[in-house]
Amino acid sequence: MVEFRMPSLGTDMKKGTLVEWKVKPGDHVKRGDIIAEVETEKGVIEIEVFVDGIIEKLLIQPGDEVLVGTPIALIRTEGQQETEIKAAAAEQDEGAQVKEGTESPLQYKACSIAAHRAKEQPEQTREKLRAEAGGEKRIKVSPAARKRAEELGLDLTTVRGTGPDGAISLADVEKAAIAGKPAERKAAWQIPTGPEGADFQLGMRRAIAAAMGRSNREIPHYYLETRIDLSRAVRWLTEENKKRSVKDRILPVVLLLKATALALTEVPALNGYWIEDRHQPVEAIHVGFAIALRQGGLIAPAIHHADLKSLDELMVDMKDLITRTRSGGLRSSEMTDATVTLTNLGDLGVESAFGLIYPPQVALVSFGRITDQPWVENGMIGIRPVVSATLAGDHRATDGRTGSQFLNALHRYLQEAERL
Amino acid sequence: MREEEIRDIIFDILLEIAPEADLKTLPHHGDLRKTLDIDSFDFLNLMIGLNERLGVDIPESDYEKLNTLSNMLTYLSARLG
Amino acid sequence: MNSIKNTVKMTYREAVREAIREAMRKDERVFLMGEDVGRYGGCFAVSKGLLEEFGPERIRDTPLSESAFVGAGIGAALGGMRPIVEIMTVNFSLLAADQILNNAATYLHMSGGLFNVPIVIRMSTGGGKQLAAQHSHSLEGWYAHIPGIKVLTPATLEDARGMLWTALEDPDPVLIFENNTLYNMEGELPVDAGALDIDHALIRRTGTHVTLITYGASLFKSLEAAEQLSKEEIQAEVIDLRTLRPLDHDTFLKSISKTHRAVIVDEGWRSGGISAEISARIMEGAFYDLDAPVERICGAEVPMPYPRHLEEKALPQVETIISTVRRMVKSNG
Amino acid sequence: MNAGQTPEPIHMARERDHNHHMLYQMLLIRRFEGKCAELYSSMKIRGFMHLYDGEEAVAVGVMQSLTADDAVVATYREHGHALARGISACSIMAEMYGKREGCSRGRGGSMHLFDDKTRFFGGNAIVGGGLPIAVGLALADKVQKRPRLTCCFFGEGAVAEGEFHESMNLAALWQLPVLFVCENNLYAMGTALALSESVTDITAKAAGYNIEAEAVDGMDLSAVEKAANKAASRVRSGKGPVMLECRTYRFRAHSMFDPELYRAKSEVEAWKGRCPIASFIRLLKEKGMLTDTELHEMEERIAIEIDDAVAFAEAGMWEPVEELTRFVYSDRRTE
After folding, report:
1. Average pLDDT over residues A6-30
2. D210-250 pLDDT tens trace
3. For C293, which of A73, A332, A354, C157 is 20 to 30 Å away at the CA?
4. CB of A357 within 8 A of CB of A341?
C-alpha cells in the first residue's frame, strides 16, 4: 500500500485544499495521471500520481485543507496483500489525529518555549524592579575609561568627568587614579599586591571609624546567641568534598552563608535598612561578607542574591570576592549593596562574637569557630562539632522575637545541609 | 623531585597568599596557619596551588598532616615518590 | 630618496597606464576592453598610446554596452584570458551590475569551486570635478557589500602602479576604483616600482591621539588635516584602507587600541555605507578601547550638485576633519 | 538481431545507433524529470525547478553538432542540456538534492548546474545573463585561435532583455564563434510572446545585427539536428555567430507547478500531440530502425540509470557547515 500525500509543488506551498477528486476508490491509476485538483495560494493545481495501482481509499474530502505531506489517499500497487492495507489504515488514523490536533510539531516547540518564557517572566520583572529601585543616575563613562577604572579598582562615582555632558574619559580616570593614590605613583616599581599604603590605610580606618561610631551611637543593639550542632552538616560536607578535586571543594563557611540567606527569606524583617526613621526591608538578599585585610582593616562586600545561588556558585563568588578585596579590584556596587552582614571569626579561633551592625543595615550575623563539644541529645552525651551563631539586631527595626525566629530557622537549615 | 624544589614551590604559592610574609624565618615545625595568619580560604588556595603545580590532589582528611612546613615536605615528598 | 637617478616623476594617470602596459607586456592573456579605450585614448586618457603599442585586438574598443562587455570580460576570463575591463564611471557600472553581482561574484560558488573568474574591472569614482549627479558618486562601498569580489581603492601613485598586477594575478574578480580627482596628481615613483599587496591597509602617518580611517582621495585631505592638527599638539594616525573588501580591520583596530578615538572619512554616503561598516567593526572589535564615540565625515546625502560651492560642501573637507578631531580630542583629553 | 537476414550496410547500422542514442537521451531527460517532479513533491528537491518536458528535441538535437571542446551556456531550464551534454544523471541528481557529490557540489541546485569536464557553464538563472558570458568565451577562443564554438541557449523571453541586443551586436561586430540557440516555447513564464515582443518573429531580429538565422521546428529532432549541424559548421567557418530559433513548447508548468491561467488547455493538448519523443519513435519504427523490444530495453536501462542516480543522491553527503564560506574566493591562486 502506498500513501499518497499532499505534494509539495513549490517552496512557497505549505498546504492545499482539495477541490475535487478525479478518481474514486477502485479506479486504476497510472504514473503521471492527474488524480485531484487542489487549491493553493497560486490557484487551482492539478496534481499527478507517481505510481501505478488501484485507489484503495480517499482520505480527505473536497473542502478539506491539509498540510503538505499529509496522506490524502491510499493506493494499492500490484501484488499487495490485504493485511498491509489494514496496517496502513491504522497509520493513517494517526495521521488524521495530527491533522486535527495541531498544525505541526513546530507549534509544540513554540508553545513550550512560550511557556518557558512565561515562567521566566516574574524573575525578569523582579530584576527590572530591582534595577529601578536602585534608581542610580547613570554616569556617562567611555568604554576605555570604564575598563581602566576597573583595572585600577577605582570607584567611578568619585571621578569628575570633563567630556561632553560630563562624560568620564580615559584621561579623567588616569588623573583621578594619580590624585587618589600618590603612594602608588611613588612606588610604581613595587609589586601591586593590593590597596596598600599609608593613605589607603588611613582612609579605611576613618571609614570604619565613621560607620562604627555611628552604629554605636545610633543603633540600639540587641544580641541573641545560640549554639548549633553541625555534625550532620560536617559529615555531609566531608563526604561531598571527598568526591571533589581540591579546587572544587566547599568550605564550611559557605554552608553558614547559604543557611543565613535562606533563614532571612523566612524572616525578611532582618534583611534591609533603617533609613529616615523608617524600617525598610529589602526583597533581594545581598549578604555582606566581612573580609579582614592582612594589612589591617575590614571590608564587607556584597554577595548578590545569596539565597538564589547554589553552594558551588557561592564558593566561586566568595573566592572571587576575597581575591579582589585583597587586590583592590572591588566594584563600587559590591561595596554598597549589602542588605545584611555576616562575619565569620572562626578562623581566628574566636568562639563567639558580638559585633556592631553596619548602618543602615538592621542585622549582623556572626559565627565563631567550629569546635568539638560535649552535646546532650535524647538524654545521651556525645561529642559534636558545634558552632556559635550570634545575631545582632537593630531594636528600632525588630525585636528579640524576630531575632529568635531567625536563629531557629538558621538552626533548621543547618540540620539539612544536603538541601542547601 | 627534590625537597628543595618542593619547598620553592610552596614558598611561591605562600608568597601569593601572604605577600608580606618573611619566609626565610618561617619555623619548620611551627603551625603554618597560625604563623602566617592563614585563614581557611588561604589554606584552600594553598591546596589548590599545590594541586596545580605538583599535580597532587590532597584529600581533606589529610589536611592535618600538612600543618607545619616540615610535615608538608614529608607528606608531599612521599606522595611524589 | 628623491634622487633623480632612482625615481621618475609622473601622474596617477601615467602610473595606471604603466601598470597596464607592464601587465600587457608580461602576459599575453591580458587585454584591455572598454568604451573608447583605444582610438580615443580613454575617457580619462589613461590608455592613451596603448593602442599603438598593442593593437586593436588587445586594446579593444567596445560599443556602449556595459552589460555585454563586462559579461564578455567574465566569459573571456572563464575562457582563459586575463581581461582588464574599463568602465568609464562608477555610475555606468550600474548598467553592468547584473554581470558583476549575479555572474562574476557568484560563478565560483555556484559551481562548487569549478569556475573562477580572474577578471579586473577598473572604473573612475568620486566627485570634485563638477560632473553633477550622474558621474560623481562614490559607490565603491556598495560593491564592498558583495562577497565574491574584491574592491580596491588605490590612492597613491605607488598603489595605482602596484595594485593592478596583483589584482590580475588574483584568481577572483577584482574591482579597482580610481578617484577621478587623482588622475592629475603628480609625484615621484621609483623607476623599479612594481607589484604591491592588495590585502592590507597601511598607516600613512603615525599618531597617538586619534585614528583617521580613510581611502581614495580623502586620504590626502586626512593627511593635510593631520599635518595642521599636529601644530596644536594633536597627533592623528592616518590609515589608508587601500582595499574595502576584504576589509583589513586588524590595522585600524590595533591603531584604535592605541589612540582610543576614531574618525572615518569617506566620500560615500553615510547611510548604509562603508563608513557604517567600519564603525560597526570598531564596535565589535574595539569597544572597550574607545574613549569617545566613533565619528564619521561622509558625503552629504544628496545627489551630487553641479555648482562648485555646493559640491565642495557635499564632500568631506580638511576643515571639517580638523574641527571634528579637535572637538573630539579637546573635549575629553 | 538481424541474424539470418542480409547484413545491414554499415552506414545504416551507424545511423541506427546514432538514432538510438538520441532517442535514449530524449527518453532519459523525460523520465529523469518525471522522477524529479516526484522527488520535488516529496520535498527531496527544493527551490525553483523548471522542467523541460516537450522541449527535449532541442537540447538533444543541438548537442549533436558540438564537439567535446565546445562550450555550452544554458538557462535555468537546463536539466535536459546537462544530460544531453553528457553530465552524469548521478551528479545532476545529487546536485538537485544539494549533496556534495553534485556536479556543482550542491552549491547550485536545479538552476545552476556546472561542469568543467564538458565545459558546461551553467545553469544561469538570470534571464539573458548568460548571453554576454557566451560572447566572452567565444572572444577568448577567437583571440587565442582555438577552433571552438560556444553554444548559448536562451528562451524567447530573454529577447526582451537589453543583454540580448548587446550580446548579438557584440558577437556580430567582433565576428565571434557563438551559436545562439533560442528555445522559443512561446511563453516567458506566463507572458505570451505577442504580449512581450513588438516583432514576434525572433528570427527576423537577427537581421538587425547582420546575423544569419534560421527557424526550425523544435518538436522535430531530425530537423533540429540538421539545422544545428548547418549552423555550427557556419560558425566554425569563422564567419561569425549564427542564430537558430527552435520553435517548441513546454508541456508542464513554468516552475514545477502553476495554475496555467495564461494558456488554454486545448493548446497544451494540441502541442502534446506533437510530442518530439513520440514522433521520433514513430519515425524510427516506420524506418524499421526500432522494435518494441528495443524500446522496452531502452526504458529498462533508463529506469536503472535513474534509480542509480537517486540512490547516488540519497547516499551523498551534506557538505559540512564548516565549509559554508568556501568558494567565495578561490582556495588557490591561478598561474
Report:
1. 88
2. 999 999 999 999 999 999 999 999 999 999 999 999 999 99
3. A332
4. yes
Are A and D close enough to touch, i.e. 3+ CB pairs under 8 angstroms?
yes
Q: Which pLDDT band holds residue A116 (cuts at 50, 70, 90)? A: very low
The CATH number given to whatever domain includes residue A266 is: 3.30.559.10
Cα distance between residue A306 and residue D93, in whole Å: 61
What local confidence, expressed as pLDDT, does residue C133 receive? 86
Written as nine digits, the cell of C186 is 603628480
Which residues pair with residue A3 across a beta bridge?
Answer: A74
> pLDDT band at A227, cuts 50/70/90?
very high
Residue-by-residue DSSP string for A144-162? HHHHHHHHHT--GGGPPP-
CATH number of the domain enclosing C85? 3.40.50.970
CATH placement of domain D54-77+113-303 = 3.40.50.970
C157 and C254 in a single domain? The answer is no
- Has residue A154 been placed in a domain? yes
Residue A117 lies in a domain: no
Q: Look up residue C109 and give its amino acid.
A: H
Residue with cell 570607584: A155
Alpha-carbon gap, residue A142 to A96, rounded angstroms:
61
Residues C240 and C110 in one domain: no
The answer to the question of residue A246 being in a domain is: yes
Instruction: Flag whether C195 is in a domain.
Output: no
Query: What pLDDT score was predicted for residue A80?
Result: 55
Q: What is the SS3 string spanning C57-87?
A: CCEEECCCCHHHHHHHHHHHHHCCCEEEEEE
**Residue B61: which domain range?**
3-80
Say which residues have a Cβ less than 8 Å from residue D91's Cβ, sequence separation at least 6. Answer: D101, D102, D103, D115, D312
Residues C161 and C254 in one domain: no
Please indicate, yes or no, whether residues A287 and A252 belong to a single structural domain of this protein. yes
Q: Measure the CA–CA gap between A337 and A288, rounded to whole angstroms.
A: 8
Domain boundaries, position A51: 2-111
Q: What is the rounded average pLDDT of the residues C264-285?
A: 97
Interface contact B60-A241, CB threshold 8 A: yes
Do A139 and A106 lie in a common domain? no
CB-based contact D334 C169, cutoff 8 Å: yes
Looking up cell 564560506 gives D325
Structural domains counted in chain C: 2
Please state the rounded mean pLDDT for residues A4-15. 83
User: What's the pLDDT tens digit per position in A358-374?
Assistant: 988 999 999 998 888 88
CA A358/CA A69 separation, integer angstroms:
69
- Distance (Å) of CA C310 to CA A116, C264, C302, C305, D92: 58, 22, 10, 6, 58
The letter for the amino acid at A416 is: E
Touch between chain A and chain B (3+ CB pairs, < 8 Å)?
Answer: yes
Q: Residue C5 has what pLDDT?
A: 61
Select from A193, A251, A292 the Cβ nearest to the Cβ of B40. A251
Radius of gyration of the CA atoms of chain C, in A: 20
E strand segments, C155-247: 174-179, 186-190, 202-205, 210-214, 236-240, 243-245
Nearest to A73 by CA among A26, A41, A118: A26
Contact C151, C143 (CB under 8 A): yes
Q: What's the confidence (pLDDT) of residue C169?
A: 95
Q: Which residues of A touch D43 (CB under 8 A)?
A: 8, 68-69
Identify all chain D residues contacting C245, using CB atoms and an 8 Å cutoff: none
Domain-wise residue ranges, chain D? 54-77+113-303
Q: What is the 3-state secondary structure (H, E, C) of D196-251?
A: HCCCCCHHHHHHHHCCEEEEEECCCHHHHHHHHHHHHHHHHCCCCCEEEEEECCCC
Q: What is the CATH number of the domain that holds B51?
A: 1.10.1200.10
Residues A287 and A382 both lie in one domain: yes
Pick among C60, C94, C110 to test the D interface (most D CBs inside 10 A): C110
Please give the share of chain D, as a percent, with pLDDT higher than 90.
87
